[in-house]
Design brief:
382 residues; Rossmann fold; 3-stranded antiparallel β-sheet; 10 helices
Amino acid sequence: MIIRRALPRPGLPAPSQCLRFPRQQRTLATSPGPESDLARHGKVLPTEPPARSQGHRIRPVTADRPFTLKDEFENFQNFRKQSSHTGSRLSRHYAPYKHASRPPSPSDLTLELLMASGAHLGHATALWNPGNQRYIFGIRNGIHIIGLEHTLSHLRRAARVVDRVVEVFGTVLVVGTRAGQERTVVQTAEMMGGYHLFTRWTAGGITNARQILAGEKVVEINDLGEPNPSGPMEDPIPVRPDLVICLNPLENYVLLKECGQFGIPTIGVIDTDADPTWVTYPIPANDDSLRCISLIAGVLGRAGQAGLRRREAEVAEWKLEGEQEDEEAMMEEEEQVEDEQMEIKNWEDFENYMKKREALQDEQLKEINKIQEDLPSTPTLW
């Protein structure tokens, strides 16, 4: 007969019957009890003291003070307290913006993480675009399933593009106009030092930028937010991005078309109902899941952050080299000034020497004339 209720279940408090079970087993057993040991040996063997690391000292069992139910309960409570911190801990909430604020690097991205974010879920089979056939893994419950191996490879390729563009001082524009994407778009742009847009795109912002930006105020390049004191530019020069990351291509077809006309590369999240030819570097994934979008945008932002760090290190090296060159130039100028001053000093010394020499010659000439005057005049022979 198997008694299942007597065994404690993991994660549940042990019942009181389980605590009494060892006492009943010792009572019903054929082994002699503590009284027979006391009568046989005349004394009770001392129990070994527990280790100090346990933090709880078990009371020794004697004939006068047997092991009671209270002692068993205290030991059980102590054991539960000591083992409460062992094992893994599961959080009871999900942070929707965790992947955008602390995203994994492209090398640490896994298929399990993509599946957990819902990147494999496509649209209904009736809404599919034939251009996405190579990205579709299969059909389940009337919807297309996206192959995550394609998502992973295309996402890593796009991450390399972002990394390189940011490293070579490129301008990156992150666009996401759906509800709930504002925070993700802003965080991604801040990580890579780019620009963001979470409102409606103004048509002609790239193709007709001179007319649209004609009345706009020009902001200083140091990003202080101070308008240009000279006022609006009469003939503004349009600034076009070097790379555009679009998180919802279906709502931003005009932007993607303008980028295509000017040869601006684009990265977009392509679902099964979108056309992959709209963007330069498609990422087949679920564009309706905020968790999936946050993960993809976070990975791209982390790649841009790596490129930004290398760019800052390169700029710091350039500044150091420039400072060294300036110091060398200043030292050369100082040496040149010292040489000029030395030449001037030498010339002044030469002039003083010539003046002293002329004065000495004048004095000698005066002495000679005076001597000649003092000599007696000699008589002439004729």
